[in-house]
Amino acid sequence: METLIDFFTGTLGLGPTLALSLAYATAIGSLLGFITVYAMFAIWMERKVAAHIQQRFGPMEVGGWHGWAQSPADALKLMFKEDIIPSGANKVLFWIAPAIVFCGVLAGFIAIPFAAGVQIVDIDLGVFFIIAIASIEVIGVIMAGWSSNSKYSLFGAVREAAQVVSYELPSATALLAPILVVGSFKLGDFNTYQAEHGWIIFSNPFMWIALLVYFIASLAGCKRAPFDLPEAESELVSGFHTEYSGMRFSFFGLEEFVSMLLVSAITCTLFLGGYTLPFNFLDVANLAAPFHLLGVAVLIVKIFAVIFVQMWLRWTLPRMRVDQVMTMGYKYLLPWALFAVAGTAVWHVWMEG
Amino acid sequence: MDFMFIVFAGLAVLGGLVMAFHQSIVHSAFGLVGALFGVAGLYWTMGADFLGGLQVLLYVGGVTVLLLFAVMLSTRDSTRLALSRYVLVAPVVGLLGMFIFQAYRGVYQVVQVLGVQGPEAPQPTTQQIGELLLSPDGYLVPFELVAVLLLLVLIGAVTIARRGQEQDEDQGQPAGTESGGTP
Question: DSSP letter at B153?
Fold first, then answer.
């Protein structure tokens, strides 16, 4: 971020306010570009993973090599599709709901460090900010479900709200364990700590529980199968986005994949070493100027490994019932998360004292 | 900073107006969401970043969701009646709020006269809050007492809710056995 501001003030000779706004615009623009390309790739990957797990090939025709152009073609189709608003819908809320849902997830990315210095703002609140701002998404989903004026949408929205609010507890509690170890909310501090002391997942045995709990809870938070009750096709048509079409529908689809990216980025940064290589090989965190971008590649490889596991689980496990989801969250994940936090605290006091 | 203040204050005022004057109760609830988020933004512009985060996490993402549940699951007529009744209360609450604000300003001026001043530039507050909570002469005991009070309230709410359910079951069962007979 400072490099960008320096570039605009120094090289181009602009005023400080203009340079600041231009730097933020550039950073957020490139973030949006990255997210769009990522989402297209992730949708293609999802279809490929699903197909191979079910012993099919998936998309093979569009674009030649293994149907790589399927997602851009789909995106183009969605863009030119008519934007239908149901006659009984509440227009204003129906319009802004996809934007609120998408903004909640997008705002989380301003704190994610992709490599040393490749981060929009290293907020002091860091992890806490991401958890807090992502909870806005629920409001958007309820808005979408209610304003559609359809029973299926409302059912889906209520299910989604209950599920996401419940699973915020175990996921936030599980994240407390690495926060205890590092002693900071700042995501930048997690990377410097792990470059020095090794990956947090190996710092104590309780961290494995915390990682497992966070991974399961984050699956539920992204509404991924086996927790995809809000859009259970066999019961609710398509859940809260039943009535949406065209671009507005694609925002909900995009939101699912972008929140997968966000959650995986948090998992990698907090547990799996961020952008550092195992045993701090090459010392990625402290490389000279152009080579520090290697960290971006390392983080993206790790993120896609986590996303692959998410997809793998989606096509392996059957969908849970509503009561099973609630039991899982409150009776199993929350106690295990608390156990992991307490265990981490005791372990570190014992090791230090 | 001024620009962000105008954005967030505008959001808070607009949300508050929607909440107070919109016909539909669900719109009012969404207006409340906007107002609460605007207030969180105001906290951020004033440098209270942890408080702003809590505001978003608890009020925007948690309490209003429960509120929306309650609004959507209750019947329409009773909510309208409740709304019209509370419209009369609103000016009183507003006056009370202004009074409290003035009192707070008075205290603030006294504090300024005494020479106690806040930090000039916004500082990250998380560490300060942690030190206040866990240092030996900190606020750990009051904090825990408040937590115990909240726990009591929770248990009380669950007990009251369950008592109602048990009564329903008690009333329901004899009626069922009378009409049903032996299966």
Answer: H
Residues of A in contact with B69 (CB under 8 A): 158, 161
How close A148 comes to chain B (CA, Å)? 13
Spatial neighbors of A51 by CB under 8 A, at least 6 apart, are A57, A58, A59
**Domains of chain A, residue spans:** 28-58+86-352
Query: pLDDT of A40-97, one tens digit each?
Result: 888 888 888 888 888 888 787 777 788 778 888 888 888 888 777 777 777 788 888 8
The percentage of residues in chain B with a pLDDT greater than 90, rounded to a whole number, is: 3
Q: How far is B118 from chain A (nearest CA, A)?
A: 19
Structural domains in chain B plus CATH codes:
2-138 (1.20.120.1200)
Taking CB atoms and an 8 Å limit, are B49 and A124 in contact across chains?
A: yes
Mean pLDDT of chain A: 82
A146 CB neighbours in chain B (<8 A) are 26, 68, 72
- Alpha-carbon distance of A234 to A202, in angstroms, equals 42
Dmax (CA) of chain B:
82
Q: Which residues from B are below 8 Å from A132, CB to CB?
A: 53-54, 56-57, 61
* H-assigned helices in chain B: 2-21, 25-45, 49-54, 64-73, 76-114, 126-134, 140-180
Any B CB within 8 A of A271 CB: no
User: B-side interface with A, Cβ within 8 Å?
Assistant: 26-27, 30, 33, 37, 49-50, 53-54, 56-57, 60-62, 64-65, 68-69, 72, 124, 126
Map A297-334 to HEC letters.
HHHHHHHHHHHHHHHHHHCCCCCCCHHHHHHHHHHHHH
Q: For residues A32 and A37, give the distance between their C-alpha atoms in angstroms, rounded to a whole number.
A: 9
- Rounded to a whole number of angstroms, the distance from the CA of A90 to the nearest CA of chain B is 10
Confidence band (pLDDT; 50, 70, 90) for B183? very low
Maximum Cα–Cα distance across chain A: 67
What's the pLDDT tens digit per position in B112-133? 555 555 545 556 777 778 788 8
Q: Does residue A191 register a pLDDT over 60? A: yes
Judged by a CB distance cut-off of 8 A, whether residue A34 touches chain B is: no
pLDDT band at B152 (very low <50, low <70, confident <90, very high): very high
Q: Is A139's CB within 8 Å of B124's CB?
A: no
Bigger pLDDT: B60 vs A4: B60
- Please tell me whether the interface predicted TM-score (ipTM) of this complex is above 0.85: no
The answer to whether A143 and A136 have CB atoms below 8 angstroms apart is: no
Can you read off the two tokens belonging to residue B147?
A: 């937590």
Q: From the list A124, A131, A146, which residue is nearest B57 (CB)? A: A131
Rounded Cα distance, B183 and B69, in Å: 39
pLDDT tens per residue across span A271-297: 888 787 777 677 766 666 677 778 788
Query: What's the pLDDT at A339?
Result: 92
> Which of B14, B22, B25, B30 is the best residue to mutate to test the A interface, defined by the most A CB atoms within 10 Å of its own CB?
B30
